[in-house]
Input
Amino acid sequence: MFRNQYDTDVTVWSPEGRLLQVEYAMESVKQGSACVGLRSNTHVVLGALKRSVSELSGHQKKILEIDDHIGMGIAGLTADARSLAKYMRNECLNHKYVFGQAIPPANLMSDLADKHQRTTQTYVRRPYGVGLLVAGVDPQRQSPHLYQTCPSGNLYEFYASAIGARSQSARTYLEKHYESFAEADKDQLIVHALQALVGCVSGDDELTKENASVCILGKDQKFTLLEGDVLLQPYLDRLEIRSAEEKEDDDDEEGKEEEPEAMET
Output
């Protein structure tokens, strides 16, 4: 009813108590390709689907390295994400220069959320149209963390999360299995991340080494990006074997259910 009158400026409230420009920015996150994150007691993993604008182009980067102990996955406007990545890298360098040690991820995420929030309260700026999943390892406690930000300035910490287009199927998978993540090793976490991404692939496409990207951080393990034949393909092969075994188990159960009961004489 009031949408056309109150959505021209980010600082104007609608009569319903909403900032419509901020909500529009949050919608842009839902249009971006999916990104998932999950953590155990020792490691944290990010997985993302990469898009290419045509068959003649390469795939856009969806996972960016911020520091040795911090990485982020993006859903939404890639250009906005690069701007935020540059800011985060500068904050990491400044903290290391002043204090002589790596910045705790919680401190960086608090500053980043404040940066998001300022754009919702300033006339000359528009909200960032990107959602972030940030994986980090506390440099002192060596504990993994997974954070999510959105254009409104809200900041959340998760055991597992998914953002982007068709991410509901990934969230359903993560909610079903998250209790097993705490004691999982890093290889199991990577397979879980890829399995969650399978449901986010559009149409008849499949999850491949070209359109998938995974990174892992953990206790005594720096940021490592897994892509291509050498690093990512073995995990895709393992995922295919696992899916085939589950399908066989389902077929066996259906066969047992369909067996007719012996007739009484």
Q: What stands out?
A: The chain has a mean pLDDT of 89. The CA atoms of residues 45 and 216 lie 5 Å apart.
